[in-house]
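Amino Acid Chain and Its Fold in Token Form
===========================================
Purpose: to set a sequence beside its fold so the mapping can be learned.
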Amino acid sequence: MPSVVDPEIAPIPRSRLRAWFACPEPGCEDQHYSLSEIVYQCRHCGGLLQVEHDPVPLADVPAATWKRIFEHRFMGTLWPYGSGVWGKREWINPMVEDENIVSFFEGGTNLFWAERLGRELGIPELWIKQCGNTHTGSFKDLGMTVLVSQVKQMLAEGAPIRAVACASTGDTSAALAAYCAWAQIPAVVFLPRNKISIAQLIQLTRSGSRGRKR
């Protein structure tokens, strides 16, 4: 694993960084939960949770320095910072240890000049970010790397997780299957009966996920 003494790699000691689940609903400002806690909604109001970061240590690094650091890391080979997601690790999920990060160095896909479509729309400089041009063919890789990494971290901490499951017809299931296969974590996908193509089914079965019709 890489050394973290170089400020171009790790400008803030990870021991100073914190993130948690929080409820954004009025009256629930004190409802905070650990990212390693198995919790699906606010236990006070039942609302959806969002991830919040402690902004104080992040603000200690000037914006221009963050920009330089992110550019220095981008698409490099130093684990895990070459990922388009984990290159911004401090702002994504600083709680996961290096050995528990599950990554295909996702992100970093090109912008494509859509010249013909641009002419049709009257936009001479139309460029498209094609996030489907990635390892699984799914733009959900960008979020799935964080989810499965957090699950692997929780398993290392002793969480009683037997599998990761999702309900999907394509992008989510393809990404979940691939990342869980990498991490050797069982994956279960719930599929709508007679509403999924063979191509979509192959995406998840080729990685060993178990499918269930619903």
Summary: The chain has a mean pLDDT of 89.
